[in-house]
Every structure is written in C-alpha cells, then in structure tokens.
Amino acid sequence: MNKILVTGGLGYIGSHTVVALQNAGYEVVIIDDLSNANVDFVDRIASITNVKPSFYEIDLKNQEKVNQFFRENKIDGIIHFAAHKAVGESVEKPLMYYRNNLVGLLNILDGMKDFNTDNIIFSSSCTVYGQADKMPIDENTSLKKPESPYGKTKQMGEEILEDFSNAFNKKVICLRYFNPVGAHSSSKIGELPNGIPNNLIPYVTQTAAGIREYLSVFGGDYPTKDGTAIRDYIDVNDLADAHVLAIARLLENKNKTKLEFFNLGTGTGSTVLEVVHAFENANNIKVNYQIKERRLGDIVEAYANNSLAAQELNWQPKISLTESMLTAWEWQKSI
Ligand code: UFG
After folding, report:
1. Which residues contact 93 (CB under 8 A, 6 or more apart)?
2. Domains of the chain
3. 63 lines ligand 1 (CB under 6 A)
4. Residues in CB range of 210: below 8 A, 6 or more apart
C-alpha cells in the first residue's frame, strides 16, 4: 500500500482529500500545525472512512522536525496543502506569508531530496493567472503578477518546484484550483473559517444562520450579466478526487513531463448573485444581502477550461452548484 503524506490534511481541501485517498486504498499520514484547523478532524475523518489517519502536529518551518518525520516514515508521495490562504491578511502580513508558505515548501522539498520521495502534488491557485485576457482560462494562459503576497507565494511555489524537479529529477503536479465550495455529504467535515469569513460561501451560510446580519456583495457594476463578479465554484469533493487521480498518475509514472499543471474548475462561471440565489433555492431560505463597493484587488471574472484535466487525469467534476449549496448549508447547521 502506498503511503501518502498530506500536509495541511486537517484543513478544508486537505481533509476531504484524506477521505478520498483512504477510500481509494492509500495509507495516509497527515502533518498539520493546527494554525487553521482543528485536531478533532482526525476523528471526524475516521468516522467517515473507518480508518484513523496518522497525525503529526508539526510546523513545517521547523526543519529538524520535518527531517525527523521523514526519518520515521517512508513516503511514496506528498500532497502539499499546508499554507496560509487569506488574501487580505497576506497584504497586512507579507513576511508571515512568505516565511510560512515558502519555508514550509522548501523544508518539504529538502525532505524529498534527502529521503528519496519522488512525487509531489502542489496546491496552487487560479490566482496565478490574475485577470486573464480571455475566458475560459486554460493552462497556457500567460501568468500575471498576482495582486497579493498570498498569490505571489503560489506563483513562487510553482517556480521553486520547476527548479526542484529539474535539479533532482522529481515528479511534480501543480493543481490550480478555482473557487472551492461545499462540504462532505456526511456533514462531518467542511470549511471552518477563522473569525469573520473572507470567502463568499461561508459568509452566505453564516448570514443564513443569523450569525451575520447581511452579506455585502462586493460590486454591482461589473461588466457582467447582473453586474456582479464571476467565478468558477468547484465542489471540494470533486477537487479531492482530482488529487487522488493526480497522485496515482505520478506513482504509476503516467505523467507526460516531470512538471505538469492542471486547472481544476467546473468550466462554468457564476455571478455572485447567481450563487446567492442557488443557495436560496437549494435550501429554501433567504439570504439578506446589500450591494456594496467593489473589493480592492478583485478581478471581474475567472472560470476554467478544464479539458486538460479531463483528458490527462480522466477527471470530471460531478457535483452541481445546487448540491454544493446543500452540503455547505448542512455543514453550517452542524457546527
Ligand atoms: N464576495 C462578496 N462578498 C463577500 C465575499 C466575497 O461579494 O463577503 C465576492 C467577491 O467579491 C468575489 C466572489 O464573491 O467576486 C468570490 O470571492 P471569494 O473571496 O470567495 O473568492 P476569491 O475569488 O476572491 O478568492 C479565491 C480564493 C483565493 C484565491 C482566489 C483566486 O479564496 O484563495 O480565489 O482567484 F487566490
């Protein structure tokens, strides 16, 4: 049985990916520093899969602890999620973002080099494209300088991985996620936002739950059909499946080049108001909202061309926006 290290495995996308990996028969070891995750997710994962994943509480900036981990565990492949991810916070605290997201990655790569692990999947983001000139966005779209230090850490991460794979002959897949939404159908795992949510869906669910008075819709004058910005909302369980396919591709040496990139999105753009209405209709509940000023740094639209992932990974998103809105609400009610 192949042993997969999932860093950030107790976080939002990480925990769903651990479930998918275990269901596919992999042995999973999680590293998480619990900076934006809860340790009870280990048991929550086990309650879904009936297998308790091993868990190490390690801060990846601590190289000695990372090396010790690699000494104790023979790892076949790594899925590296662990990173800070709040765009606004990264503008306030750039050094914290560079230190955490880049030093953590470097320590993992040193571990791969010194302890002979050949395969890594990197959590990247559609933020590396900035406001692309044409839609949908495919993997050949030229990258733009990201607006935020967070986005820059993703772009730099991809560049570091390119040099790493060339120098040490390691296999790398960068997965560029569009906007992850939804929760596991069991409602046992989902997104746990820290404080006031930055992202749309947790803000919507907290507004529906009465925790927030109203949702501010950032911008009603974009050049789109209803004036609100367009994103590609992809279910977290579909994202999780893509990670299982990607790690299998590397373990089975089916990759075409040492370094590959795949967009993970549905291929469909939805406006903010379409998402709000999808949530309302799916759950038969009203969401108070007010149209406000545009949010600084936001782009007008981003949605994926996902045909490369379809062709190479044999990946197809299966879960509709309506279903994601149902599971997001079930999860919100359970916490
Ligand atoms: N939005 C609102 N009100 C809110 C929150 C969001 O109207 O309270 C709008 C935003 O303006 C945007 C859309 O909802 O138009 C989606 O916003 P999110 O904050 O949920 O997501 P972003 O597209 O801004 O950011 C996401 C990830 C980042 C990633 C980025 C790449 O959160 O990690 O996609 O584009 F970098």
Report:
1. none
2. 3-181+233-265 (3.40.50.720)
3. no
4. none
